[in-house]
Amino acid sequence: MTDTPSLDRPAEALDALRAALAAAGPDLPPDLLVFGDAIPERNLQDWSRQPPVRPLALARPRSTQEVAAVLRACAQTGLAVVPQGGLTGLVRGAHPVAGGVALSMERLTGVEEVDAEGATMIVRAGTPLQQVQQAAEQAGLFFPLDLGSRGSCSIGGNVSTNAGGNRVIRYGTARDQVLGLEAVLPDGTVVNALNRLVKNNTGYDIKHLFIGAEGTLGAITRIALRLQPRPAALDAALCALPDYASLLGLLSALRARFGPGLTSFEAMWDEYLDTIVSTFDLRRPFAAAHRFYAIVEISRFGAGDESRLPDALGELMEQGLIEDALIAQTEREAAAFWQIREIVGDLRQKAGPLVSYDIGLPAGVTDRFVETSAARVRAQWPDAMHLAYGHLGDNNLHLIVRSPACGSDQPRDGFDRAIYDTVREFGGSISAEHGIGTTKRPYLGHSRSPEEIAVMRMVKRALDPEGRMNPGKVLEG
């Protein structure tokens, strides 16, 4: 497999692509393809903010049939294809390749069907996550996948990267919300696996080939989602803790007390909260400084049930596990807690270039990992910012690293080696929810065995023998 399989001469490649599409049928819209300078700037890169790449063409289909026509035409002309969703990824997974075609799902949107009795939904891949959530709510149900980029990211991109988010501890990742899907293979074949049954034990489960594959095996076009009962209320609290053992103790205590009612458990190290509060001029939640903080969210399903969270936190405070706690009395107060966690997406605009990490670690070693990785980074860059936070309840840690002295030229390669080598030592995963793309590709072997990678290559060769589908992503060429 090569990184950018395409024709050598762009003009001839464009002519060949136009001719192949024309042969596909007269019903294709004239604005299906955009070329050259007419390609919007937003389609030249994702949120990784790596140098933009202008593809040979941008395809914007409105239907599965148009997606299939584009992929057949690209197969006939030997052009690479890079699927694009909301372009909110951070690992260059949707970055176009020069000489290839960017396949944007921005027009393939809409909720096709909501089955309230069966608690399922059929949705097109380009639909923003927030629109999916709203459609479920209007039907009296709940779609639990939730990310800070909910208004921008697409459900197809969420599924393609197996996104996680804030409620994995209760509901699982994107994979756990999918009953079935429809995808188009690199040769244009449409695979309709839109299963809507929770129990369907009929051979290989085809959907799992495409979930988490980051568009390297085909383009997801439609998805059958599993919906959940809508909580009657969500109770939120911000807790302050003296040490990491207390943080783990709080997590264990809440799990034992509330079981599946524990919807979110977001941990923040003190350096993270201090930096966010000062950078964005937010009100400090507590008068005193603390070592650790946690945002807790509890779901209640009984319409008349009173919140049990105040009593639970009061008991834990008496035991010395919690130093202080704030319990949200309104949705606005709960949103203020979550703002401390979600505003981090804007830190780049305030602080300047930085490098972010999304890793998985056993909860018991996470604090030791943070201390070790910080020491290794600062041994080379003494002024480095090293911020830790994440979904501790599902083993997901996020890091932000930046050396102010390096300015706009952050030493990403050096940071990567320090962080990912430490991840390997602690038995973790180099990616918990953002995917591999190209930025983590050299380190895939830190988390996957040679045998696993060999199987991945077998699947890739079977479905995309020419290596044209999102080339260079996930696996080395």
TrEMBL record:
Gene3D superfamilies hit by this protein: 3.30.465.10, 3.30.70.2190, 3.30.70.2740, Vanillyl-alcohol Oxidase, Chain A, domain 4 (1.10.45.10)
**What is the protein named?**
FAD/FMN-containing dehydrogenase
UniProt GO molecular function:
FAD binding; oxidoreductase activity
According to its UniProt record, which cofactors does this protein need?
FAD
Give the keywords, sorted. FAD, Flavoprotein, Oxidoreductase
The upper taxonomy is: Bacteria, Pseudomonadati, Pseudomonadota, Alphaproteobacteria, Rhodobacterales
Question: GO annotations under biological process?
Answer: respiratory electron transport chain
FAD-binding PCMH-type domain residues are: 50-230
Family named by the database record: Belongs to the FAD-binding oxidoreductase/transferase type 4 family.
Tell me the organism.
Albimonas pacifica
Q: Which domain of life is it from?
A: Bacteria
